Every structure is written in C-alpha cells, then in structure tokens.
Amino acid sequence: MNPTPRRTAVPPPDLSVLPAVDWPRQETPGFPLRAAHSGVHLGADRVGRPVTLPGAGPRGTRIGVLGESLFGRLLACRLVAVGARVTAATRVPDQWTLLEAACGDRLAVTGDAGGWPDTPGEPPDAGDGPQALVTDLRRPPATAAADGPWTTVVHVTRRPPARSGHWQRLDAVLVLDAGYADAVTPVLGEGAGRLAGGLAQGEIALFGPGGADVLCLDIAPAETSLLTPG
Q1: 167: nearest Cα among 62, 55, 69
Q2: How many CB atoms lie within 10 A of CB 26?
Q3: Checking phi first, is residue 117 left (phi over 0); if not, alpha (psi -120 to 50) or beta?
Q4: pTM for the whole thing?
Q5: Is the peptide bond before 117 cis (omega within 30 degrees of 0)?
Q6: Which residues pair with 131 in a beta bridge?
Q7: Whole-angstrom Cα distance, residue 74 to residue 118?
Q8: What whole-number distance in Å separates Cα of residue 16 and Cα of residue 137?
Q9: Burial of residue 122, with CB atoms counted within 10 A of its CB: 0-12 exposed, 13-18 middle, 19 or more buried
C-alpha cells in the first residue's frame, strides 16, 4: 500500500522583489462617452433640427434674453418641466397667476430677487433639485447669482444694462426678433447684430458656445393658455 504523498506548503511571493512593468497604453475601440444633448427645448431651426437652451446642469448657467417678459414665463414653465425649482422676480406678477397655480410649490413669484436662492442647487434627484431665477426686473441679477452648481439665472430685458456682470459672462443669449439687433450688437458684436437683423417674422436667434441658431419656437396650446392670462 502506497503512503499518501505529503504536500509541501508554497510560500507567498515577495512583493518587494517583483519586477516593475510599464503597461503600454492602447487605444481600444469600444463605447466612447459623450456629453448628453440636454437642456430646455426651444424649437426647430430652419432645416428642422431641434434646438436646446442650456440650463439645469451641474454648473451654473447665465442666460440673457432680449425681448418681452412673456418669454420669461415660457422659460420658467419649461425649467419647471425639467425639474428646476423656479423663482420669478417680475414687474408684472399678475401675468404669472395661472402659471404659478399650475406649477404649485415649484414656482415662486416675487418682486425682488434679493437673497436668492434660499437653498443651493442640487441634482434633480436630490433635495430641492436645480434652482432657477427668471427675472424681468430692470436691475440685472447679481453677478455671482449663477456661480453655484445646478443653478440657472435668466434676465429678460429689452436692452442689456450697462456694466452688468451677468451680461458680461453669459452662456447663451436669445434675441426674440429683428427689432433687437441694435441691442445685441454691444453684447456680442456686429456679426450677431447682422444675424439678428435678418430674422424673419416668427424667428428668434440663439447665440451659445456652439455658435448661432435661427429657430422658430414650439409652443403648445396648453402653454399659451398658461402664459397669457385673460
């Protein structure tokens, strides 16, 4: 009868004497990650492509709008729809009554933007979510109002205020018709003024980091009824 062979214990390797190896960097095809096309939907450009306004993202966003206060209500409505808690600082609070009732506690209407925001902006699935300020007051928003993450600040005016820090650090500018060509020229230059001056009836211009878009707004009948009380 053969005896059972005895097993010899193998000592663990000495990690201090293992040779160092430089692994080669290889470009491997796979699934690249790219920034998602997100934001607030506005409409379609002249060839039918959707156009989106940046907003409610992980960094602060400053937006300037040259036009009437009605557009501020449209943006507020759509910012609420993408998960933001919106504060409207307005000269015409009576024009916001229907929208305020429809949005509940996601929209607060006030006559003063001082002290905003009450809480810092957070991702859509945390706390109060993103914070947005939409103002049509003559006094521009504070320069630092949009410095925090998940924070969007929109100023709607017919003419940009002189020496406004907000208007000097914009991420996007909207021009609502050709009549504001002279107002956008001091902000973005003569090229922007010429493009705005060539807008057809019903077209608006969006100037952003990716260039300029000319588009027509998509507005649902339900939005129209909320934005124009009476």
Answers
A1: 62
A2: 5
A3: beta
A4: 0.81
A5: yes
A6: 85, 151
A7: 23
A8: 68
A9: middle
Q: What is the mean pLDDT of residues 83-109?
A: 94
Give the pLDDT confidence of 157-191 residue by residue, as tens digits: 999 988 888 999 999 999 999 999 999 999 999 99
| Token pair in block for residue 163 | 């020496």
**Which of 32-46, 72-86, 97-111 is the least confident region?**
32-46
Cα angle value 25/30/36 (rounded, 5°): 110
- Which strands form 61-66's sheet, in the order they lie side by side? 50-53, 40-45, 211-217, 203-208, 172-175, 61-66, 151-157, 131-135, 85-89, 107-110
- Please state, in angstroms and as integers, the Cα–Cα distance from residue 104 to each residue in 109, 144, 178, 225, following that order: 11, 27, 35, 17
Amino acid at 119: T
Separation between Cα atoms, residue 158 and residue 180, nearest integer Å: 7
Instruction: List pLDDT tens digits, range 55-80.
Output: 777 888 999 999 999 999 999 999 99
Distances (CA, A) of 18 to 9, 11, 21, 22, 24: 20, 14, 9, 13, 18
CB 118 within 8 A of CB 130: no
Q: Give phi and psi for 214, each to the nearest 5.
A: -110, 130
